[in-house]
Amino acid sequence: MPTSAGEALIGPARVAMRSLDLAAAAVENVRGLQTGRLDVVAHPTLASDPLAALVGRFRATHPGLHVRIGTPDSHSVSELVETGLYEIGLALGPVATGALGVLELPREEVLIAFGPGSSRQPGEIVDVHELESIPLVVDPRVHPKAVGLLAGHGVEPKISVETFHRDSIVPLVLGGAGAALVAPRMAEWAGRHGAIVCRLRPKLHRQPVLLYRRDDLTAAAKTFVRLVADGPR
After folding, report:
1. d(Cα 35, Cα 49) in Å, to the nearest integer?
2. Strand ranges for the chain from DSSP E
């Protein structure tokens, strides 16, 4: 652990590193973004979708740029962007953003996946109040957002398994450990592997948001923000 003196130096050090990045950004502008680096931090459930597609579009037009994708761990996405460790962040809204710029990405419907042995039928409607008695597999980093979505309906979900390994959620569902609340892309993958995917009533949605520093972005980060703002083409 750093000493109090060391902690006091972290902020200025990050400012100094950001100044170097900005100097490099001036060169990037002249070179037309032929080289450089973009640092992005993403909430675990958003790293594969929608971030993967966004980075793919970005790299398709700027193949010389290096992209580094980090995970928030014990800090929030907004904190890591505000302190300058990352320029761009992808989080689940709503978030307290302070002085950061915010772009809302398209909302996505939250679905529920059951194991192959379930009596449910694909596409069946499940009332959200049933989640109080349906054992769920959850990622503790995502669970607070799910609880927030359900709290408005007076629902306290029943948790059977917690896992920090996001890639294990669908296998756990397929193995009979419980059901899981999933985004559309994960629901599609789960269905192809034998899960039974149902819809919730009333519908629940997740809101991905892009966070960015307003005043000191590198050229690469500015280009990425514009790409997201313009949407798919």
Report:
1. 26
2. 37-42, 66-70, 88-92, 101-104, 108-114, 125-127, 135-138, 158-162, 180-182, 196-201, 204-206, 208-212
For 4-67, the DSSP string reads: HHHHHHHHHHHHHHHHHHHHHHHHHHHHTSSS-EEEEEE-GGGTTTTHHHHHHHHHHH-TT-EE
Coil, helix or strand for 129? helix
Q: Is the pLDDT of residue 29 over 50?
A: no
pTM, rounded to two decimals? 0.77
Terminus-to-terminus CA distance in the chain, angstroms?
A: 47
Helix (H) or strand (E) run with residue 174 in it: helix 169-174
Q: State the Cα torsion 169-152-130-183 to the nearest 10°.
A: -30
Q: For residue 148, how far is the Cα from the chain centroid?
A: 16
By C-alpha distance, which of 212, 219, 224, 218 is closest to 19? 218
Task: Please name which of 80, 98, 233 lies closest in space to residue 90, comparing C-alpha atoms.
Answer: 80
The whole-angstrom separation of Cα 166 and Cα 69 is 16
- Which tokens sit at 118? 């379930």
* Tens-digit pLDDT profile for residues 168-211: 999 999 999 999 999 999 999 999 999 999 999 999 999 999 99
